[in-house]
Design a protein that fits this description.
The chain has helices at residues 2-23, 31-47, 52-77, 81-100, 124-147, 150-160, 162-167, 172-198, 209-223, 229-252, 263-294; strands spanning 104-106, 200-202. The protein is 76% helix and 2% strand. It is mostly helical. It contains eleven helices and two strands. It has a single domain, classed as ABC transporter involved in vitamin B12 uptake, BtuC (Orthogonal Bundle), CATH 1.10.3470. GO terms for molecular function: transmembrane transporter activity. It holds the Pfam family BPD_transp_2. It is a multi-pass membrane protein. Belongs to the binding-protein-dependent transport system permease family. AraH/RbsC subfamily.
């Protein structure tokens, strides 16, 4: 159940990464910092007495602001997108420490977004999974709808061919600002939910977030080859779940011998396989078609 819970939460990260890497064609490493910012803002505000829902919304706006900074550095000063996002991510490490006041905060005895539902009598481990699943799937459906609206299609056009998009009257820079704000807002929401469901926020909890999000996107795309935005968005969430399940199986299979210290190696292998297998499948189909033509 813990694997499903984390899988759904990182489904939000996958949606954010999909927006930048696939929709906008903007490699954005800010997510490593915005994930922690979401957790830090939510935790700090809840401890200071703010309503958990308001704290979570504030975390989303904090992550969106981080995305806007990255977009501003790139568009205003022509800083390479990767470098702009690295600069923002580096700055966020200090900002997050300032927000929390110390390297980690505990939320075990504090109210969270789950508190109003605890009176239902559902065991905590199931309540967490149900809550995050409903939130993530609802956001996924809204995102799929948004990307099929006129504004969403303009954003997709911006990533596909910015020159052509601008020639057709689309304000390209505006779409990049909006896309990065939305992407990092989703990632910050994931961080806020992670902190509240797990009972802590830590200054280093965002390390490797971009790799996990990208792995989920790649796994989902390799399994579901579709042009439908609804299928693509849901594939990101499913990819996140499958990725976390694969990690759990690898770490808990005694005959393999992996430990938690091998997590980065497992991640690299899974992402590598997800990238290699579609290519091998295409080559196999091409060889099969060539043999058929020869016959």
């Amino acid at each position: 159940m813990g694997t499903l819970e984390i899988g759904f939460i990182f489904g939000l990260v996958a949606l954010g990464v999909y927006l930048t890497f696939r929709v906008l064609d903007f490699p954005d490493l800010t997510v490593d910092g915005s994930f922690t910012m979401g957790a830090a803002l939510a935790a700090a505000l809840i401890i200071s007495g703010v309503n958990p829902y308001l704290a979570t919304i504030s975390a989303v706006f904090g992550g969106a602001a981080a995305g806007l900074v990255t977009a501003w550095l790139n568009l205003r000063f022509n800083i390479l997108h990767l470098l702009a996002s690295i600069l923002t991510m580096t700055a966020l490490y200090t900002i997050n420490l300032r927000i929390m006041g110390k390297p980690n905060l505990a939320l075990i005895m504090e109210p969270t977004v789950l508190s109003p539902f605890q009176s239902l009598g559902i065991p905590s481990m199931y309540l967490k999974v149900i809550f995050v699943a409903v939130v993530v799937i609802a956001i996924g459906l809204l995102l799929a709808w948004f990307l099929n609206t006129q504004y969403g299609m303009a954003m997709r056009a911006t990533g596909a061919n910015p020159r052509m998009a601008q020639a057709n009257g689309i304000v390209v820079n505006q779409k990049i600002y909006a896309g990065l704000a939305l992407s990092n807002g989703l990632v910050a929401l994931a961080g806020a939910l992670f902190a509240q469901t797990n009972g802590f926020a830590d200054s280093t909890m965002g390390v490797g977030t971009i790799v996990v999000g990208l792995a989920a996107v790649i796994v989902g795309e390799s399994l579901f080859n579709s042009r439908s935005m609804l299928v693509i968005v849901l594939s990101c969430i499913i990819g996140s779940l499958l990725y976390r399940l694969a990690i759990a199986v690898a770490l808990n299979a005694d005959f393999i011998g992996f430990t938690t210290s091998d997590l980065n190696l497992i991640t690299a292998v899974l992402v590598g396989l997800a990238l290699i297998l579609p290519q091998l499948r295409r080559e196999w189909k091409a060889r099969k078609a060539a043999k058929g033509d020869a016959a």
